[in-house]
Amino acid sequence: MATRKLKRAGVSDDMCEQLKRHQIESCKDLLSLSPVEVMNVAELSSRRASELLQSVSRAVAPPVTTALELWRQHSCFSTSLPALDRLLGGGLSRGTLTEVTGPSGCGKTQMCLMLSVLATLPKSRGGLDSGVIYIDTESAFSAKRLVEIAQSRFPDHFGCRERALQMAGRVHVFRELTCQNVLNRLDRLEEDIISTGAGLIILDSVASVVRKEFDTTLPGNLMHRSNMLSHEASTLKYLAHQFNIPVVLTNQITTHLGGQGSEGGSGFVTAALGNTWSHSVNTRLIVQYVDARQRQILIAKSPVAPFAVLNYTIEKQGICMDGQGALYEGTDPGLQPIRVQTEFNYNQTEPMDRTEQTQQ
Amino acid sequence: MQRSVFSLSLSPSVKRKLVNAGFQFTNDLLHLKPVQLSKEATLSQLEALEVLQAVRKEGGGGDAGASSSLTALDLLQKEQDLRRIVTFSSQLDAALGGGLPVGKTTEICGAPGVGKTQLCLQLAVDVQVPQCFGGIGGQVVYIDTEGSFLLQRVVDIATAAVQHCSLLVEDDEQRVAMTTFTVETILSNTFLVRCHDYVELLAELHLLPDFLSDHPRVRLLVIDSVAFPFRQHFEDLSQRTRLLNGLAQQLIAMATSHNMAVLMTNQMTTRLRGGQSQQVPALGETWGHAPTSRLLLHWAGSRRLAAIFKSPDHTGATVQYQITSEGFRDIDQSEQTHTVQSTASQRDTGH
Amino acid sequence: MVVLREGMCPGLDEALVRDLRAAGITTVEDVVSSDIEELAQRCTVSYKALFAIRRVLLAQHAAFPVSGADLYEELLSSTAILSTGNPSLDKLLDPGLYTGEITELSGGPGSGKSQVCFGVAVHISYQLKQSVIFIDTTGGLTASRLLQMLQAETSNTEEQMAALQRIHIFRLFNVFSLLDCLYGLRGGRLQQACVGGGSVKAVIVDSVSAVIAPLLGGKQNEGMSLMIQVAGVLKTMAKDFNVAALVTNHVTRSVGGEVQPGLGASWSHIPRTRILLERQERAADISHSSVRSATLIKSSRRPCHIREQFDLQWWSRSKEESSGKRKRDETGS
């Protein structure tokens, strides 16, 4: 769009030639100049320069819609977990980025697999009746588990093996194990979405490749890393909006030092990838341990939902939730402490007060 | 009084030609005819005409800047005619001097999830509150660069606002006003633009003056956020600064000429200073000059605080707020606005 | 460089101008610097006539030598020193804003540049009963703030209104309208603004960097040229009309992390006096202290790097005791 050639934006041939002499060929090149620079390269007076900028802008600027028009075509992607759906206002919002973060083994990948199954379901059953793009950077995707979830969660629908295999065929897995590969994949994803008819994008996980390749203790690396992450985020947001589909990402955890915001003063565990990344995701769900079997899901950042905590277990049919969930006192989603496995004792099965745990 | 031709808003090549032909000052050009000038300075006739128009506009005793000149007294009267946009949080209103100022630019900075977008959405609804309820009955242009505009949330906030106003109805005027203040009209008066990168954002801003002339009731422009598109794809930071400076001037000019409030959000970034890291608003030091007022939302444990960091008429204040299911509110429970629809799903910050 | 025109001086008629132009002589400068004898031959004009023309042109366009004593006399009679209304700043400025000079305030966001400008404007218009031109390029000016400051000075509404009327505001947002406005002022509108009592004694531009900074940098020097134009017109206006020019500038951070005024080295020669304003607290947390420090970083009268502290509340000091203070106590808890 922005890289559209000036010629196609209704700029006269003479002017195109004139601008080409200054290596200005696309709308982006021209709009990145200040008005005085435009006067200079186009040899125009300031009034005519702003006319030129306006006409080029017309070719680039996205359309204006009213919220009412959008509201009429609004729908959510149900997570099939009624309590979570209720809090999130119907499910995962289309066109936005939802992040699931938490310690390993807590069910992030399970969540992704379950959502993949849901997306392929027909619309009459609350699904999207579409394909899924599944970018797997941890080699954690298991087709066997995918089919298992499908068959045990919806035994009536996936009763026959053929249907289950058909479902699995609609989940397109891309295994990308380096940062560069992930980026390349994202840049080409537009084509993949069209060809596979995808209605859901899953990136599991954002953090693993990035954290593997960038040692942030080295100077300059942090900068490079955040550039890369914001590039990823903007590409995903672009795709989410253009195709009006939900995007689900997973993230890892890190130890936050310095004690800022924690009462203890010592380090605690929180979502990885830093503050800037936290801005990029629209919704952040944190999964954490309660005891050996019980897990919790926290809504840590959401434009619609309040801070809430829900208990769940991982069963054969994926994630199962009981209860309606409770509210908790939330804080900065970038600093929300996360409970990890090492913090509880297997022998001690004494139940604890939920809200107390989340406050640490 | 001689004015150099270099100071005219003409193309640099035309100015060079004028000077080469010996026309250093505008006085030298005053009595010339276009054809004569085009011959003498080897300009095209069209260029020559443009030169002369520029010179006459300036030299003719001047209506050039006169239209924008007014005394402080005139300005005061103008300001008093402009009402502010109330936030539904009386404490924040008080800190802002009565609400969000129309005709000014305001920036909200803050950590992720602290409520920047919430405040934007709240104000996008608030600006539409009819005049008889103390609002300004305007429309809003919402430029979303992060994909964080959530309709579901707007509907929640709008429903709460409509309900709040319907409880206040006392006279016929207000009853009539309520018929056109519904969730549906609120949504139809919200113009949404989704920009994916800074080029689209800049393009949109070039077109906005025309859009505003066509929609004279627009009283609020929201850009959520300025930071996101400008924090990527920039190898050359000086170019970014230049573009941001230009953008700031464009916004201020629009805010002034269309009597519109401009609300922008900015992210926070970590800066190392003297071995200590601290959270500062992103986009650099120079950008800090751009907004007229700066509001900083931050966490203090589980409390949310809003601090006024820069403001032309108040030296600053800090207030506590909460985000409820109805929107951005005071923490004080005794407020009428809260009792309307206090549900279980309230993010109470507690005291 | 002024183009030769017929009738500029006796003897310079249309035919001669045409002939001179044919010989490559188009401006006064050309005439003055050419060899008259050779020129007379080439244009077939009498040497005497040309010589006379040259003498007249020289007399018309040359600068006059002025003796230092005369200059001093003139300075004494015309220069005024305007108090800013704030004792600490006055002390730093030794002892106020000088007419005929450009004074610059620079500082980071929220450092109080605009507040100082408002205070100065109010002080000059109310206490000194003189007119002020206030050019606002950032949209930061609110008349209600000016009124608030005036209310601290007097409770007489009529006087407040009269003072407000002496402040003339221009709101401009790009460099070309700024130039148009400044040239317009210099071309006579400055005197017109005096109507309503008191002559214009100060021109305040808040901020000059807001319109110039977007022009600088990149692969062009047009922006630099425009900046010099702004500087030039400000300077001559200050000199010719004996007004004090007060401009504000933003700050940039040098490689070493040190704060310095923006707009680069070329601009740094323009203001005669530069003051850097800073917030007192260094930490990230937002305390609402109104105390600022001002450092003199360029001056021809006092040694540099003198630092003074002052309170932004000074201009509305009685305000602070009443509602202002209460407000802060209320919300600061």
UniProtKB/TrEMBL annotation, chain A:
<keyword id="KW-0547">Nucleotide-binding</keyword>
<dbReference type="InterPro" id="IPR027417">
    <property type="entry name" value="P-loop_NTPase"/>
</dbReference>
<keyword id="KW-0227">DNA damage</keyword>
<protein>
    <recommendedName>
        <fullName>DNA repair protein RAD51 homolog 2</fullName>
    </recommendedName>
</protein>
<dbReference type="InterPro" id="IPR013632">
    <property type="entry name" value="Rad51_C"/>
</dbReference>
<dbReference type="GO" id="GO:0140664">
    <property type="term" value="F:ATP-dependent DNA damage sensor activity"/>
</dbReference>
<dbReference type="InterPro" id="IPR058766">
    <property type="entry name" value="HHH_XRCC3_RAD51B"/>
</dbReference>
<feature type="domain" description="RecA family profile 1">
    <location>
        <begin position="73"/>
        <end position="253"/>
    </location>
</feature>
<keyword id="KW-0539">Nucleus</keyword>
<comment type="similarity">
    <text>Belongs to the RecA family. RAD51 subfamily.</text>
</comment>
<dbReference type="GO" id="GO:0000724">
    <property type="term" value="P:double-strand break repair via homologous recombination"/>
</dbReference>
<dbReference type="InterPro" id="IPR003593">
    <property type="entry name" value="AAA+_ATPase"/>
</dbReference>
<dbReference type="GO" id="GO:0000400">
    <property type="term" value="F:four-way junction DNA binding"/>
</dbReference>
<dbReference type="InterPro" id="IPR030548">
    <property type="entry name" value="RAD51B"/>
</dbReference>
<dbReference type="GO" id="GO:0005524">
    <property type="term" value="F:ATP binding"/>
</dbReference>
Automatic annotation (TrEMBL), chain B:
<dbReference type="GO" id="GO:0008821">
    <property type="term" value="F:crossover junction DNA endonuclease activity"/>
</dbReference>
<feature type="domain" description="RecA family profile 1">
    <location>
        <begin position="81"/>
        <end position="268"/>
    </location>
</feature>
<dbReference type="InterPro" id="IPR020588">
    <property type="entry name" value="RecA_ATP-bd"/>
</dbReference>
<dbReference type="InterPro" id="IPR013632">
    <property type="entry name" value="Rad51_C"/>
</dbReference>
<dbReference type="GO" id="GO:0000400">
    <property type="term" value="F:four-way junction DNA binding"/>
</dbReference>
<dbReference type="InterPro" id="IPR052093">
    <property type="entry name" value="HR_Repair_Mediator"/>
</dbReference>
<dbReference type="GO" id="GO:0033063">
    <property type="term" value="C:Rad51B-Rad51C-Rad51D-XRCC2 complex"/>
</dbReference>
<dbReference type="GO" id="GO:0005657">
    <property type="term" value="C:replication fork"/>
</dbReference>
<feature type="region of interest" description="Disordered">
    <location>
        <begin position="332"/>
        <end position="351"/>
    </location>
</feature>
<dbReference type="Pfam" id="PF08423">
    <property type="entry name" value="Rad51"/>
</dbReference>
<keyword id="KW-0234">DNA repair</keyword>
<dbReference type="GO" id="GO:0007131">
    <property type="term" value="P:reciprocal meiotic recombination"/>
</dbReference>
<keyword id="KW-0539">Nucleus</keyword>
<protein>
    <recommendedName>
        <fullName>DNA repair protein RAD51 homolog 3</fullName>
    </recommendedName>
</protein>
<dbReference type="GO" id="GO:0140664">
    <property type="term" value="F:ATP-dependent DNA damage sensor activity"/>
</dbReference>
Automatic annotation (TrEMBL), chain C:
<keyword id="KW-0067">ATP-binding</keyword>
<dbReference type="GO" id="GO:0140664">
    <property type="term" value="F:ATP-dependent DNA damage sensor activity"/>
</dbReference>
<dbReference type="GO" id="GO:0005524">
    <property type="term" value="F:ATP binding"/>
</dbReference>
<feature type="domain" description="RecA family profile 1">
    <location>
        <begin position="78"/>
        <end position="251"/>
    </location>
</feature>
<keyword id="KW-0234">DNA repair</keyword>
<dbReference type="GO" id="GO:0000781">
    <property type="term" value="C:chromosome, telomeric region"/>
</dbReference>
<dbReference type="InterPro" id="IPR027417">
    <property type="entry name" value="P-loop_NTPase"/>
</dbReference>
<dbReference type="InterPro" id="IPR020588">
    <property type="entry name" value="RecA_ATP-bd"/>
</dbReference>
<dbReference type="Pfam" id="PF08423">
    <property type="entry name" value="Rad51"/>
</dbReference>
<dbReference type="GO" id="GO:0003697">
    <property type="term" value="F:single-stranded DNA binding"/>
</dbReference>
<dbReference type="GO" id="GO:0005657">
    <property type="term" value="C:replication fork"/>
</dbReference>
<dbReference type="InterPro" id="IPR047323">
    <property type="entry name" value="Rad51D_C"/>
</dbReference>
<dbReference type="InterPro" id="IPR048943">
    <property type="entry name" value="RAD51D_N"/>
</dbReference>
<dbReference type="GO" id="GO:0007131">
    <property type="term" value="P:reciprocal meiotic recombination"/>
</dbReference>
<keyword id="KW-0238">DNA-binding</keyword>
